[in-house]
Design a protein that fits this description.
By secondary structure, the protein is of the alpha+beta class. Helices cover 28% and strands 33% of the residues. Helix 1 runs antiparallel to helix 3. The protein starts with a strand and ends in a 5-residue tail after the last helix.
Amino acid sequence: MSNIVERRVCAEMEDGFVVFLIGMRINRPWRFWKWGPVAAAMPRMLIELGEQPELGLLHARTHFNFPGIMVVQYWRDFDALEAYAKARDHAHLPAWQAFNQAVSSNGDVGIWHETYVIGPGQYENIYNNMPPFGLGAVGTIVDAIGGRQAARQRVRGML
């Protein structure tokens, strides 16, 4: 149980950031040749993004919940996310084009994403006896004391 921060802390980001949720749902498990390539595309993208931090991905964590898979991603900003999505020389655009040719809207596999643009101070979090997780894996970890004691205090910019 290494890297556990054995106290109550929160994570702070100096600037805004983007939370990007992306996932797939296997609607017809027996049609592996349709959803297999979709499932294999995301690890390739995450490896590419991990090897090139200048592209803007700050952190990603994959969650499995059959029949679905979801990746929670933290990005530097929306411009970086959009640039990666549209870049012809990176893994996403060819995977997106292959999906549209092989699956499109036939119902075999569903895909989805949600994008949240977060301004400075428009978020809050708390971690206790946890290794760096979520925003805590990319932000600055600070003790949740004084002006950071309560959720309302941590959400400075929203209220």
